[in-house]
Amino acid sequence: MSNKEELKTLKDVQDFRVDMDRPLHSATHEEILSGKTTDVYFIRTMEILTHMGLQEKVVTAEIFPRKAGIMAGIREAENILRDKNIKIWAIEEGDSFEAMDTVVRIEGPYSEFGIFETVVLGCLSSASGWATAARDCRQACGDKPFVCFGSRHVHPAVAPVMERAAVIGGANNASCILGAKLIGKEPTGTVPHAAFIIAGDTLKVAEVYDSITPEEHSRIILVDTFKDEVEETLRVANRLKERLGGIRLDTPSERGGVTPGLVRELRARLDQEGFNWVKIFVSGGLNPDKIRLLSDAGADAFGVGSYISSAAPIDMTMDIKEVEGKAIAKRGRIPGLIHNDKLKRIK
Question: CB 3.0–4.6 Å: which of 145, 165, 219, 276 could bond 127 by disulfide?
Answer without folding.
Answer: 165
